[in-house]
Here is the input.
Amino acid sequence: MSQQEFDVLIIGAGISGTALFYELARYTDIKNIALIEKYNAPATLNSKGTSNSQTIHCGDIETNYTLEKAKKVKRSADMVVKYLLLQNAQNQFMFAHQKMALAVGESECEYMKKRYEEFKELYPYIEFFDKAKIKQIEPKVILGEDGVNDRAENICAMGVEAGKAFTTVDFGKMSQSLIEQAQKQNKNTFVAFNQEIVSIEKKDGIFILRTHTYQEYRAKAVVVNAGAHSLYLAHKMGFGLDKSCWPVAGSFYLTKQKLLNGKVYMVQNPKLPFAALHGDPDLLADMNTRFGPTALAIPKLERYKGLKSVPEFFQTLQLDTTVIKIAFKILKDPTVRNYIFYNYLFEIPFINKNLFTKGAKKIVPSLKASDIYYAQGFGGVRPQVIDKTRGELMLGEASIVEDGIIFNMTPSPGATSCLGNAERDAKLICKYLGVNFKEDQFASELL
Here is the structure.
C-alpha cells in the first residue's frame, strides 16, 4: 500500500471539484493540494457537455428563480464569465448566444411583463420582446403548426440578443481548464485519475482515505464534490443521516437541423420542482436544437455507468417511513404526479417522441415527431436531497460541513455556481487550517 499526504484533498474532478482545486491553488497559502477522480478523465459525469444544457444559469431567464436567488446566482455566474475571459475562452468554449424566457397566452404574458419590470435593474442588458420582435429573431417560435401562418396566441419574452451577454459554456472543457491553471501555480498540485475513494476515516486529526486499488491518501482537510456519491460517502462516515438522496435523471431530444437561433426557456410551473422544458443550440451537435430536459427519478447514483451504483442508491436513500411520507406528499398533487408519469413515458420507444413533441410545440408549434430523435447517452443525474428533519425535498445545493471535511451535493445550477461554491469552501478550509485566503487578488480577478 502506497501513501501520500496533503494539506487538502478534493474528491471529484467535475466542475465543482476542479473549481475548488483552482481556487485553493491560486488564492490561498495552502501548499499541498490533491484532486482525486474515480474515472479516467475530468468531467465524465454531470459536468460533461452532453449531460447538461451548457447554460450559464444567471437568473435572467430562469423563471423558477426569485429575485433573491437570482442575485445570489448572478454573482457566481459573473465569476464564471470573468474566469473564462481571463483564459480567452470566448468563442472557444464560452459563447454569447441569444436567449429568452418565452410567455405564451395572456396570463403568462402578464406575468412576464411584471417579471421584466422586477428584474431589469439587476440585468440592465435584458430586453422585453413583443411578438414582432420574436418573429424577427426566432421565426420558428412565431410560426403556427402549419409552418406558414403565425401562431394565434399572444406571446412575449424577456431576453437578450446574440453577442450582448455570455450564455453558453462547455463545462467539461472548463473543468479541464481549471485543472491546467491550478497546475501552473507555484504549489504542489497532485491529480490522480482512476482512483475511487471507498472509505474515509479521521484519526488523530488526519483524514485517511483509501481507494479501490488499496492506495492510501492522508490529508488535513477533505472536500467531497462527488455528486450523489457525496452523501453516500457522508453516510459511510456517519454524517448527514438526516438526509436522503433522490437522484433525478434528465434526458434530451435532438433535432435534425437548427430550429432555434438561441436558447428559448418557458415559464416555470410553480408546482413543479424541476426546470421547465427548453430549447438550446447544442455545442456538441453542430448547433442543432436540443430540447429537454425530462425529469426521471431513477434508482442509480450515476447514469450510463452500469448497475454498480444501484445498491449505493439504496444505501443513500435510507428508506424509512419519513422518506415514504415525503414521497407521498410530493405525489399527492396531481400536477406533479402526472408530470412524473409522463417523464417515464418519454423514455419508452415508439411512443416517446410523439408525447414529447406535444410539450415542445409550445416553443416551436410546427415541430413534428419526425423532426426529433432521442439523444442517446445525453443527460446526467441531479442528486435531489430529502431533508428528513424538515420533511421536504431540498431544492438547490446541499452541503454537510463537519470538522475539517465538507460534503457537497450540487444539483442545477451547480455548474454555474461552481466558483461561488468553491469560494465558500476555500474560505472554510482556510479558516480550519489557519491559513490566508487572498481576498484582494480574488476580488480583482473574479468579482
Remarks:
- The CA atoms of residues 27 and 438 lie 5 Å apart.
